[in-house]
Structure formats: C-alpha cells, structure tokens
Amino acid sequence: MARVFVTGSSTGLGLMAGELLVEQGHRVVLHARNQARADDARRALPQAEAVVLGDLSTVAGARSVADEANKLGRFDAVIHNAGVGYREARPTRTVDALPHVFAINVLAPYILTALIERPDRLVYLSSGMHRGANARLDDLTWTRRAWNAAQAYAESKLLDVLIAFAVARRWPDVLSNALEPGWVPTRMGGANAPDDLDQGHRTQVWLAVSDEPEARVTGKYFRYLRQRAPDPQTASFELQDRLIAECGRLSGVALPE
Ligand SMILES: NC(=O)c1ccc[n+]([C@@H]2O[C@H](COP(=O)([O-])OP(=O)(O)OC[C@H]3O[C@@H](n4cnc5c(N)ncnc54)[C@H](OP(=O)(O)O)[C@@H]3O)[C@@H](O)[C@H]2O)c1
C-alpha cells in the first residue's frame, strides 16, 4: 500500500486518480484550492485521508500547500495534476505578475517538487499538445510575445516534461516521469473531447504505485501505460537546467541537490 498526494483533485482527472487509488487500497491525500472545493472533494471521496488546501496560482500559495502537505508526513508518491487550460483569452497575471497558466501549470509543480519532502515517485501531467510547442526559456512570462492561449498551454505542458526529466537526472533515487492522459471530457477537456475518459487517470496512478518493471523507470514519457517519445526538446540537458534555474529565480525556491 502506498500513500499518494494528488494536486488539483477536487474534480476531473485528479479526483478520478484519487478514487482509483482508494479502490486499489492505497492511502490518498487530496488537494483543493479553498475550503468550498475541499468540501466538494471530501464529499466525492470520503475515504481520502485528508484534503490539503491552497491556491497554486501564487508562489506563497504553492509554498503553503507544500508546508501543509509536509505536516501530514512523507508521501510515497506525488501526482502533479493541477492545471488550467488553453482558453484564457487574455494573459491573466497573478499577484507575482506571472501568467496564470505558467504559474499554476509550471511554477507550482516546480515549487511543490522542491519543498515537499522527497517521495519515491513523482508524476507530472503533460499533454499531447506539448509536441509542437517551443520551450521559450527567454520569455517564460510572456512579456515579449503576443499572447496565444493555446500556445501558452502547450508550452506549459512541454515545460512540465522538462521538469520531470530534470528531476529524474538530479535525483536518481526518485522515479520521475511525465505522461499525457489523452484528450478526455473533463471540465478542461470539454464535452466533445474524443478520447476515453476511463483511460485518462490510469497511467498516472500506475506510475505512482505499480511495481511492474515498466512503471519503475525514470525520466520517461507515457501515454496509456506505454512509453511514448516526447518532443525532442525535452532531451536537452541545457533546456532542463535553464528551466530549473529560471523557476528558482522566479519563485525564490531552490531545487535541493
Ligand atoms: N482533460 C484533458 O483532456 C487533458 C489533456 C491533457 C492534459 N490534461 C492535464 O490533466 C490535468 C488535469 O486536468 P483535468 O482535465 O482534470 O482538468 P479539470 O477538470 O479542470 O481539473 C483541474 C483541477 O486543478 C485544480 N486547479 C486549477 N487551478 C488551481 C489552483 N490555482 N489552485 C489549486 N487547484 C487548482 C482544479 O480545482 P478547481 O476545481 O477548484 O478549479 C481542479 O481540481 C491538467 O494538468 C491538464 O493539463 C488534461
């Protein structure tokens, strides 16, 4: 039995992953942005051990989520699932003056990775949309480019793979992988999403807890329980290292050696 923390688990794939983990006999801590959403999560999955509260759109919020998670004790695995999508017509800026999408999809998982007591496994939700995005390390905060919501989302999901792979290199004692869940009909995916919702949460759960040798790898990218080739940019040690350095600079949180 494993103990797993799932971010952004008040609904969608995060909640579904929590439900499957409980069904498989694991212990699950959920996460929600505020008390009302935590109550929703608790109602949906009363068997969850706890629900951590906190808004991941700010550096302070992400730091607080890490603190609250650490108070509950060490996890065997963390699934970095919380995310926002590709429909922000304008680049909403957070109190840290960062684009909302970057803050939640990239900086928050970086901060949580750095500050939550190191688990055995880390799992990062990417997207098939990451292919074709450019890792614009020179403009992560979208101050030099005209805003493009779909591009900002796709780029954030490319950066998630870079984080997963950078961590895999730095922390050889941790299994750190990324995956795409398919385009599935959650709130983010929308009602017309073509892929099977029932497959959308399985790979992250498998990577978090399975003892199958195929799941006990690190620095890999998956879809539907199978390794897939991610965008070639993700293999660049230079991009990985620059991203970690930039996330450290923007958040003021260093990734421990
Ligand atoms: N659905 C797809 O087709 C698809 C495809 C590729 C990748 N993905 C990835 O899969 C992950 C889950 O997506 P989903 O489809 O399940 O989305 P979803 O149904 O919209 O759920 C997103 C979850 O993240 C939480 N969240 C968002 N912003 C937050 C914040 N600032 N602080 C705390 N929690 C926050 C949401 O909380 P609230 O409910 O309070 O907003 C919700 O629990 C995302 O990383 C997404 O990029 C999804």
Bound molecules: NADP nicotinamide-adenine-dinucleotide phosphate
With strands numbered from the N-terminus, the spatial order across the biggest sheet is: 3-2-1-4-5-6-7-8
Number of helices: 7
Number of strands: 8
Report the helical percentage: 25-40%
What structural category do the secondary elements indicate? Answer: alpha/beta
Q: How large is the radius of gyration?
A: 16 Å
Helices and strands, in order, run as EHEHEHEHEHEHEEH
Tell me about the biggest sheet? Answer: 8 strands, mixed
Tell me the fraction of residues in β-strands, as a range.
5-15%
Q: Please state the average pLDDT score.
A: 97
- From the N-terminal CA to the C-terminal CA, the straight-line distance is 28 Å
> In one word, what is the shape?
globular
Stretches where pLDDT is under 50 for at least 5 consecutive residues are none
How are the secondary structure elements laid out?
Blueprint: E1 3-6, H1 12-23, E2 27-32, H2 35-44, E3 50-53, H3 59-71, E4 77-80, H4 100-115, E5 121-125, H5 149-170, E6 175-180, H6 202-209, E7 221-223, E8 226-227, H7 237-251
Parallel strand pairs: 1-2, 1-4, 2-3, 4-5, 5-6, 6-7
Antiparallel strand pairs: 7-8
The chain binds NADP nicotinamide-adenine-dinucleotide phosphate.
Describe this structure in words.
It is a single chain. Helix 4 (100-115) links the parallel strand 4 (77-80) and strand 5 (121-125). The protein is globular. The mean pLDDT is 97. Helix 4 runs parallel beside helix 5. The protein is α/β, with parallel strands linked by helices. It has helices at 12-23, 35-44, 59-71, 100-115, 149-170, 202-209, 237-251, and strands at residues 3-6, 27-32, 50-53, 77-80, 121-125, 175-180, 221-223, 226-227. It has an eight-stranded mixed sheet, with helices on both faces. It is built from seven helices and eight strands. NADP nicotinamide-adenine-dinucleotide phosphate binds at residues 8-14, 33, 37, 55-57, 81-84, 104, 125, 127, 180-181, 183-184, 186-189, 193. The site of NADP nicotinamide-adenine-dinucleotide phosphate (NAP) has 28 residues, from helix 1.
